[in-house]
Fold:
Amino acid sequence: MKNNTTLILLAAAGAAAYLLLKSKPASGGTKTRTNTDLVSEILNNDTPGQAGYGWRYFDNGVAISPNGIYYKNGVEVWRH
Structure:
């Protein structure tokens, strides 16, 4: 019985070590990427009263309307 328990513990430790090694970035660094690393907001200089005021635009084709509706390349994709 003790041999089975030892074998199970060794297998679990090996699986945990494997998962930890696989979870590191391929570059060898320790920082994980966030959405802010991948997408940049395009500044909107419209003033109140102009058609684009209140909208947020991003370089990946996403736009967010003033009422919170998300568009990707002009097609509505999400609303809250």
In short: The chain has one domain: 2-78. The two ends are 55 Å apart (CA to CA).
